[in-house]
Amino acid sequence: MAQTKKPNILIFMTDQERADVTYADHPCRTPHVERLAREGVRFGNVFTTMAHCCPSRASFFTGLYPSQHGIYNNVSGRAAIHRALNDGVVTFSERLKNAGYGLYFSGKWHITAEENPVDRGWVELAVTGGKERKAGQPLDSWREMPSREEPRERARGELVRPGWGNKKLYGAKGELENINDYRLVQRGIRQLDELKGTQDPWCLYIGVIGPHDPFIVPEKYAKMYDPNEIELPPNYADSLSDKPGIYRRMRRVFDQLTPQEVKESIAHYWGFCTMMDDLFGMVLDALDRNGQAEDTLVLFMSDHGESLASHGIYCKGISPYDETYRVPCVVRWPQGVSNPGREVTELVSMMDFAPTFV
Question: Is the pLDDT of residue 183 over 60?
Fold first, then answer.
């Protein structure tokens, strides 16, 4: 259909969210994403280029493979292979700015440690994981680094990690209004209010940190799902005997958790996903309130998934499984989407979005 105005673009990106939790038939409740799917299009086979924050986000912003944009792992860690995008790599934001878009960024960056969003054309509202000027330690010195903390007796929901201290995988803490994700979402909403009525096209990126591990959420969300009603993943009993040894090493870490603790961790993760959905709902409400919904393309997606005890492991990174590589993706654009409420099953890559926006 004919367009009289370039569409606004609103990107809401979660961190480490599985695709399956956003479906209406899943026990985890995400009513606002489900609403978006009814009013738009769900893409059911969207895969990241790598199940790791930095390379996947760099692919999203550049439309390139990690081998092309140069980001292979965490740019902020001591083991960073590269801390900056390759020379000559361009992001979609730069092209949108040249096309007359106003660009606003609130949330997680984590693409390069040598630049911030402002260096790629964005107005920074609130940024986490931005530029770090300190140089990374060489990989060899990182390998030789002495143990940072002696392990102590494992508490419920904790993992003992020799040399790295204990890590609490899930728990309850704080109030929604005091969480950083809430604050950065509110900053994005204030920007939407400021853009009300403007005729110039804009792109707003809101990048929350949840539901990234650890799954520590306010009590309301921690108690939202009953662990006793949760079943272990169908492939939880995978011995990984026919897989590379690195996966069995990973599993040994997470086998510290009892089956009941695994169920509790899943309950907390689902609560985390519902909390992110509540924040997303606040953004949709702001679009409706300001009369911006009709001419705004809204994209909800994540950078990669979460194992969540599938194959007996957690997190992401090395594990090459559907749970970590398939990401949720729903698009709504009233003026540009035909036959809303359908699902597209063709293969889509994290690299497809940058050229599509352009």
Answer: yes
